[in-house]
Each structure stands twice: as C-alpha cells, then as structure tokens.
C-alpha cells in the first residue's frame, strides 16, 4: 500500500508542464534576426525552451497549441511555436511606452518577464562651444545607461562608428559631404558604446563639420541616432535624440596656433578643429603630420586631405614628396604618378628616418604594381634598389617593413631577387616564412626540395612552431601538383606538428589520400592536433560539421584508401 501511495504522489510531478524560459537576448526582430527596437507590426522571434510541441504548431491566433505571448499582460498574435521558438507579431499602432514586458505562457505556466524596447531610448545632444561658418561645429552627446561616444573611433576620420547625424535647415535635410569609399578599418572601442562616461579614453563630443558643410549662418536642427552596429540600418536605431536647434554664426578671421605632437591632442582636438576651414594654410599644416611618428596620426592626416579634390591635392602632395621625401600614407593616392614618386623615393631606402624608409617601401609598392605606363627605367631602378636594400639594409626598419620588402621581392621575377630571397631565408630571422612564401611566388619547381627541407627541419632558436605554417599553402597554390610529393615528404618526416597539419590540409584540398590518412590518425590515436584537424575538415567539407567523431574518422579513413 505504501508503494502505491508513493506512485500516486509522483504522477503529478511527471505530468507537470515545464516552466517556459526566454533565453537572455533571445528576443530578436524577424527582419534582422538580431535584437533591436520592437516596432509596431513587425514579427519577432522569441528563443528559449519549454514552449509548444517539438513538431511545431502554426497560427495565427492569440493562443497556438496552448502557447500565448503577453505584451504588458495583453495577448498578441502568435504565428508559430515549437519547443524552443515562438514567432509573434507586434500589435499595430504607436507604442504606448518605451519599454514593455514580454511573457511567454505555455500550458498555463508563465515565463519570467523580459523587458523589451518599443521605442528608442533618449539621447541628449547640444552644441559644444561656438559654431561658425568656416569653423568647427562640435556636438556634445549624452547617451543613456552610461554609454559614451569616442572620437576618433574608426580609421576613417569622418566615420562615427555606431552614431549617425541628420541635419536640416528650414525643414529641409542637408546632404552629407560625399566622402571617398576607402574601406572601413576598425580601430576604436567596440560599439554600441563600450566607451563609458568617466573613462579616460571616452570623448563626449563629435565633429559634425566632418560630415556636413555649414556654408551660411543661421539656425540648423540636428538629430543623433545610435545604432546597434556599424551597419547603421534605420530599423536598428537603439537610441535617438530629439531634433535639436543649433546656431551657426558668421565666419571670422582665425589663426592657427602651436602644432601639438601628442597623438591624442592632435587627433581629438587640433586636426578636427583645423578642418573647420579647409584652406591652403590648413592643407600645409596637414602635410606636416604626414611625417608624424605615430601611424594613427599619419593616417588621420592622410584621410583629412581627402577634403580637397585630387585636382588640388595631388600636385601639392607631389611638391611635398619632392621637398620632404615619401610619406607612407599618401603613396596610393599618387599612384597615377608612379614614375615620379619612384624617382623621388629611391634615395630614401637608406634613410635613418623610419617614416621615410616606410614611405620608400610604399612608393615601391606602387611602382611594382604599376601597369605598362610606368617608365621601364624607373621600374628597373626600383627593383635594383629593393634587392640591394633587402640584401644589406633590410633590418634598418621594423619587422613589418622587412616583410613588406620581402613581399615586393616575390613580385620581382629576376634571378637577383630570387637569390636574395634565399639569402634571407637562410638567415632564419624574422621574415623567413615570408621569404619562403615569396620564393614560391616565383613558381620554380627546382625550389621545392629546398623548401621542403626547411619544413622538415627542427625550428631555429627562438622560432615558434607556427612560424612556417603559411608555406605549405603557397607551395601548392603556386606550384600545383608538383608540390604534392614534397608536402607528403614533410608529412612523413617533419619535426613540427603544426607544419605537418598544414601540409595535411593542402593535401586534403588536392584530394590526396596521404592528407586524409594523417587526419584520420589524429582521431584514431587522440593526437594533440585533433581539434585543429576537425576545424580544417569542417571548413572543407561542410557536411561533416554535425557528425560524431567516429563518423568523422570513418569519413577520413574512406578517403585515405
């Protein structure tokens, strides 16, 4: 009898419906599949567990298979549900408040409420200081929840990361300044908003004059939108200010003060202020910063020069080049004058100034890549200078400069360049891997035995085990099937596991059984590089991504036969 009672007590527990749970960050917009503002009428996906049946149920209805979604206690339309997902539709009409609570109900059990945003949070902006025509226009920004803005936050000086402005005058939107599409290279704090108020690195104002021109005095209106990421899609606005009036006063004469050298002061204040008036004097000051010791300052100055059209900037930059030597950050802009910049840069390969040395390398990159319009004599002189510098003076610069020179030698298909690359490889210093890669670019099969010998040997003193892992790819990519026997040789005799793994990867890409046999062995004998092998195989064969380890071993073994 006691046993029957215990069973009777246990049955309700077995039959009890699990409590539905909404995953952290589990509420996303259906149109972006990311978190964001839940606008009226959009479909939302609510990820979690303990919802409807595993097989799924379709709506639409306010209750589907016992599942409801409550928005501030009111049921909304459910379109679909299974055990881990509910798709629901936000009600039409204006959102009555900024934040609502979302609850999933399943089988009478309620999830913990989840706060969701139905309107953007509020930012406060204001004019910082005095704004004038032909002067800087700075906007002070206060974001909620202790978020902050940071400038410069991107490598492009006119880009404000996750923040964007709109400006209007007399009710009409202004067209932003058209900037060149130079690509976005992230160089600041993560967004949205990992620069916090009170952080020494935070900067609470943004230079609006780098995005809009203020050509006449008067009253303008400005609105800031803070987005979920760099894409700045309208549906992803997380925080927004009201349209805020600012007054722009007439221009007045102004002078440029002392030129600071501390990078933060240069980039956050001095150069943005300088760009308020884009005249000849400002251009001349910017050219001075092209030679600054800080690469970020040099990049900032180079970007700033795009406020002048090529018809103005290029002739003046060529004058600067002839007078002061090559500045590394502007060589690409002068690429249509490859012969001229090549001649003007030759002597700077022997400069003790690291910036000028890097500038000479940047000029060489333009010359080597130039088409048939370049003077053949200049190209020959540049190639001779590069091989001479690489043979005797390569290490006068930093490691990156050395690698840049070695990469250029790989594009010069002369016997002298070939010999110098082998000399650099034999030195077993920084750049040895790049030298072997550059040798492969010369596509001479006679180099393969010697390259394989490097890969088989034990690492040089101070050389990491990953130092030569890029070489197997270059061997196969440049020399094709001729490289395969030598990659198999390294696979058999190599002293460095990471190099052997990369040889196996290239052999598998060529469908060579030896690569698959090596990979299968990693699983059969639980080798240390097993996880790396799995990642490589998953990338090459997507059908293996969700199979078990035993199934993967079988997959590899079959291809090893």
Description:
The chain is an alpha+beta fold. The chain has four domains: 17-117, Immunoglobulin-like, CATH 2.60.40; 121-249, Immunoglobulin-like (Sandwich), CATH 2.60.40; 309-442; 445-561, no CATH class. It is 38% helix and 19% strand. It contains 18 helices and 20 strands. Strands 1, 2, 3, 4, 5, 6, 7, 8 and 9 form a nine-stranded antiparallel sheet that branches. Strands 10, 11, 12, 14, 15, 17, 18, 19 and 20 form a nine-stranded mixed sheet that branches. Strands 13-16 form a two-stranded antiparallel sheet. α7 packs parallel to α9. The longest helix has 17 residues, at 376-392. The protein is flat, with a radius of gyration of 32 Å.
What layout of secondary structure does this protein have?
Elements: H1 2-15, E1 21-29, E2 43-49, E3 57-61, E4 67-71, E5 74-81, E6 85-89, E7 99-106, E8 109-110, E9 114-117, E10 121-128, E11 131-132, E12 138-142, E13 147-148, E14 163-169, E15 172-173, E16 195-196, E17 205-207, E18 218-227, E19 237-241, E20 244-249, H2 263-274, H3 280-289, H4 295-304, H5 310-324, H6 338-345, H7 354-369, H8 376-392, H9 399-410, H10 415-427, H11 432-441, H12 448-456, H13 471-479, H14 484-493, H15 497-509, H16 513-524, H17 530-540, H18 549-559
Parallel strand pairs: 10-19, 11-20
Antiparallel strand pairs: 1-2, 2-6, 3-5, 4-5, 4-7, 5-6, 7-8, 7-9, 10-12, 12-17, 13-16, 14-15, 14-18, 18-19, 18-20
């Amino acid at each position: 009898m006691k046993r029957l009672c215990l069973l009777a007590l246990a049955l309700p527990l077995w039959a009890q419906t699990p409590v539905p749970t909404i995953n952290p960050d589990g509420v996303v917009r259906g149109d972006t599949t990311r978190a964001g503002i839940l606008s009226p009428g959009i479909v939302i996906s609510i990820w979690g567990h303990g919802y409807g049946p595993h097989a799924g149920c379709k709506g639409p209805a306010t209750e589907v298979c016992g599942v409801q979604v409550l928005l501030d206690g009111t049921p909304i339309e459910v379109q679909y549900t299974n055990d881990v997902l509910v798709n629901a539709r936000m009600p039409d009409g204006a959102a009555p408040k900024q934040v609502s609570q979302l609850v999933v109900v399943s089988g009478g059990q309620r999830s913990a409420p989840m706060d969701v945003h139905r309107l953007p949070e509020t930012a406060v902006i204001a004019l910082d200081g005095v704004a004038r025509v032909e002067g800087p226009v700075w906007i002070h920004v206060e974001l909620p929840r202790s978020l902050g803005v940071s400038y410069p936050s991107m490598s492009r000086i006119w880009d404000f990361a996750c923040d964007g402005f709109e400006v209007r005058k007399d009710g009409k939107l202004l067209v932003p300044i058209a900037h060149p599409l130079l690509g976005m290279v992230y160089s600041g704090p993560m967004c949205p908003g990992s620069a916090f108020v009170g952080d020494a690195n935070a900067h609470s104002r943004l230079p609006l004059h780098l995005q809009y021109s203020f050509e006449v005095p008067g009253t303008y209106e400005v609105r800031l939108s803070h987005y979920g990421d760099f894409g700045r899609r309208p549906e992803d606005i997380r925080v927004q200010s009201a349209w805020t009036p600012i007054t722009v006063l007439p221009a007045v004469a102004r002078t440029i003060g002392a030129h600071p050298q501390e990078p933060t002061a240069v980039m956050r204040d001095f150069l943005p202020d300088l760009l308020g008036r884009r005249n000849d004097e400002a251009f001349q000051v910017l050219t001075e910063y092209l030679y600054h010791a800080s690469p970020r300052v040099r990049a900032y100055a180079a970007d700033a020069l795009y406020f002048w059209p090529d018809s103005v900037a290029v002739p003046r930059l060529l004058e600067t080049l002839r007078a002061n030597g090559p500045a590394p950050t502007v060589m690409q802009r002068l690429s249509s004058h490859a012969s001229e910049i090549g001649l003007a840069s030759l002597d700077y390969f022997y400069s003790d100034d690291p910036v000028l040395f890097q500038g000479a390398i940047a000029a060489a990159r333009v010359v080597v890549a130039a088409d048939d319009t370049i003077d053949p004599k200049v190209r020959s002189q540049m190639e001779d200078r590069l091989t001479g510098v690489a043979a005797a003076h390569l290490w006068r610069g930093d490691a990156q400069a050395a690698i840049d020179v070695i990469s250029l030698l790989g594009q010069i298909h002369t016997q002298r360049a070939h010999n110098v690359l082998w000399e650099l490889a034999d030195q077993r210093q920084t750049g040895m891997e790049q030298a072997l890669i550059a040798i492969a670019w010369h596509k001479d099969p006679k180099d393969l035995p010697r390259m394989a010998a490097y890969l088989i040997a034990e690492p040089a003193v101070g050389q990491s085990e990953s130092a030569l892992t890029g070489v197997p790819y270059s061997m196969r990519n440049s020399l094709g099937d001729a490289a395969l026997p030598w990659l198999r040789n390294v696979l058999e005799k190599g002293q460095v596991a990471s190099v052997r793994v990369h040889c196996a990867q290239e052999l598998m890409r060529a469908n060579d059984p030896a690569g698959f046999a090596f990979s299968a062995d990693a699983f059969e004998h639980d080798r240390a590089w097993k996880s790396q092998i799995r990642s490589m195989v998953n990338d090459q064969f997507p059908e293996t991504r969700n199979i078990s380890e035993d199934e993967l071993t079988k997959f590899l073994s079959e291809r090893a036969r």
